[in-house]
Amino acid sequence: MSHSLLDLVGNTPLVESAVLNTNKNVRLFFKLEGHNPGGSVKDRAALNMIRSGLERGDIKPGSRLIEATSGNTGIALAMIAGIYKLDIELVMPENSTKERVQTMRAYGAKVTLTSADVGIEGARDYAEAKVRDEGYQMLNQFANDDNWRAHYKTTGPEIWRDTEGGITHFVSSMGTTGTIMGTSTFLKEQDERIQIVGVQPTDNSRIPGIRKWPEAYLPKIFKPEKVDQILEVSEAEATEMARKLAKEEGIFAGMSSGGAAAAALRLAETLDSGTIVSIICDRGDRYLSSDLF
Fold this sequence. Notes:
Layout: E1 14-16, E2 26-32, H1 42-56, E3 64-68, H2 72-83, E4 87-93, H3 98-106, E5 110-114, H4 119-134, E6 137-138, H5 145-162, E7 169-173, H6 178-190, E8 195-201, E9 229-233, H7 235-249, H8 255-270, E10 274-280
Parallel strand pairs: 2-10, 3-4, 3-6, 4-5, 7-8, 7-10, 8-9
Antiparallel strand pairs: 1-2
Helix pairs in contact: 1-2, 1-5, 2-3, 5-6, 7-8
Binding site for pyridoxal 5'-phosphate: 72, 175-179, 256
Enzyme class: transferase
Catalytic activity: O-acetyl-L-serine + hydrogen sulfide = L-cysteine + acetate
């Protein structure tokens, strides 16, 4: 059967923890989003934002797109914009890993690096200035409903299907919050008792892909009532768990996945029974130039 590359976005594997989960009464599954063609969960949102924008006529051939990103969304947007023959500029802090920058450029995107001192907030400010002053068009993953709707349409239904409706807890790192918002909305419609657990960094921890946003930068798509519980993880916990996932489970992923897995395992220890699904949002190979591994 032939597929276009975009047909391969989604339907990622769900694998059960074979080693790290020691509570025999709880099943812990990892959803391996690194199996998307662009290597991360962000393929889903990027595809839905571009495809839906084109279908509505919000995005047109010749549109000059721009987006601030910490990495995975940028790679996904670069890949998908290239397929649709759209020009895109991606704005990232200069301390982003070189694998991310090189991958985006390989897909044909223009990459602009902003000061590491102002982080992703500075990249967002730069992109917004280009929209305001130079006529660029921003997809704005932080405020674009097509972000969370991607997970309402795909991630949530896949988890419900693959656990045969047995899921009791969903654990996801929180960045733009699109994954947790869309998946929560779908799963709660199936069974309102399902607990949605968001993962944030502890104060002063820097974990790529997980954020505790200042109020002025809080994603507009975030609805706090859709999250039942927030667990905080430290940078050290996320790093250690990413390494353990690779060594003990054979799951090669980044720090945000390590953070989510650490929270999921902590949660599993507190439960008498249940079925937990935790998002493994990307692949570890885009962190090889960092000190993660």
